[in-house]
Amino acid sequence: MTGDSVFQTFRQFSLLRDRSIVGHHLKVIVVSRELAKSYSLEQTFDFLLRDNDVRPSCLVVVSHRSAFEALSLSEPGEIPAFYLIGLVDNRYRSNKILPPMTLNKLDSAMESKDSFLLQNVLTSQGEHEFSGAAIFKGSTKKWIGELTQFDVEGLTWIMGDVKGGALKTYVKKGGYTVTYEPKNSKSIIIPKVQGNDISFHVKILSEGRLIEDWSFPEIPSTVEYIRGLEKKFEEQARKQVAQVLHKMQHVYRVDVGDFGEMLRIKHPKLWKQEGDQWDETFSHIPITYEIDMKVKDFGFSTD
C-alpha cells in the first residue's frame, strides 16, 4: 500500500482486510534511507507520535535499502522484529551496537534540535546485520550520512559507552593478531573555556582482558610485554577516535558525541549563546584526547 498520509494508508487496508491495523504490539519501526533523505523524521513520525496505540518503547532503526527487506527473513518461523530487538541485546558483546533509540527517545532527540544517530540495518540474501549508524542533522531531522562500524567503535570510546566487544591489533614483524576485551571502561569529556574560546579534552580509561594472542608470547608474560600490548591497544583505539572525530567535525559537521551536552552542563550561559548554531561551532573546536588501557586479566591462560 502506498500514499502520502500514513493514517489514510492504514485506513485503506480496511478495504482489503477484515482485521484492522493496530499499534499495540508494534516492536520495531524501520525507516528506509531514501525516505529519510527526502523527508524529515518529524514529518514521517508525526502520526506515530500522535497515535496513543503505538507504544513509546518501540525500537527505531534505518535500513540501507527498503524497509520491507529489513522486516523479511528467509528462516521460516522467525519473527523479524524479535530478531532485530535481539541484536540490540548483544550490546554487552559488541561496541558496534548503539544504545537503542526508542520512539520516545527519538521524540526527545528531535525536540532538542541536536543532531543524532540511528542504528543502521544492512540486509543481504535474507540476513540482517547492524552495520554502522545513520546521521540525522538536528536542524532538518534528515539523513545526511553514515558512520561505519569502525566509527561507531570510536564514538563509544568517546562517550564512555563501551559495554563489551573486541579491540584487535597486530604485533611483531609477522603481523600477529592480539585482541583486547574491554570489561570496565569510562570516559570524561572536559570542556575548557577561555573567554569565547572553547576546546575539549577527552580522558578514556579502560580495563580489560587479553583474550587472544597469536604472537607466541613469553609464558609467563613479562610486565614489559604486557605494557607493550597495552600501548598497541591504545594506538588502535586512538585511530578509531581520530577517524570518528574527523568525520563529525570535517565531513558531516555535526556533534553526535555529547560534546554540546557537556558544555551545556558546565557552562550554561555560554551554551545559550552557542546552542542555536552548535553544529557549525563544533566543527571548528580543538579536541584533544588521551587513552589509558590496562590489561588486568588473561582468562584461563598461564600468562
Largest sheet: 5 strands, mixed
CATH C-level category of the largest domain: Alpha Beta
CATH-derived architecture of the largest domain: 2-Layer Sandwich
Distance between the termini: 61 Å
The succession of helices and strands, N to C, reads: HEHHHEHHHEEEHEEEHHHHE
Helical percentage: 25-40%
Q: How many separate structural domains?
A: 2
Oligomeric category: single chain
> Unreliable runs, pLDDT <50, ≥5 residues?
none
Order of strands across the widest beta sheet? Answer: 1-2-3-4-5
Number of helices: 12
CATH superfamily of the largest domain: Nutrient germinant receptor protein C, domain 3
Strand content: 25-35%
The value of Rg in angstroms is: 22 Å
| Broad structural category | alpha/beta
Principal-axis shape equals globular
CATH topology of the largest domain: GMP Synthetase, Chain A, domain 3
Number of beta-strand segments: 9
Report on the structure:
There is one protein chain. The protein has 303 residues and is of the alpha/beta class. The protein has two domains: 1-147, no CATH class; 148-303, Nutrient germinant receptor protein C, domain 3 (GMP Synthetase, Chain A, domain 3, 2-Layer Sandwich), CATH 3.30.300. 35% of the residues lie in helices and 28% in strands. The protein has helices at 6-12, 33-38, 41-44, 46-50, 67-70, 80-88, 103-112, 149-159, 223-251, 259-266, 268-274, 278-282; strands at 28-32, 59-63, 116-124, 127-136, 143-147, 167-171, 176-194, 197-213, 287-297. Strands 1-2-3-4-5 form a five-stranded mixed beta sheet. It has a four-stranded mixed beta sheet with strand order 6-7-8-9, with helices on both faces. Helix 8 (149-159) packs across helix 9 (223-251) and helix 10 packs across helix 11. The longest helix is centred in the C-terminal third of the chain and has 29 residues, at 223-251. The radius of gyration is 22 Å and the shape is globular.
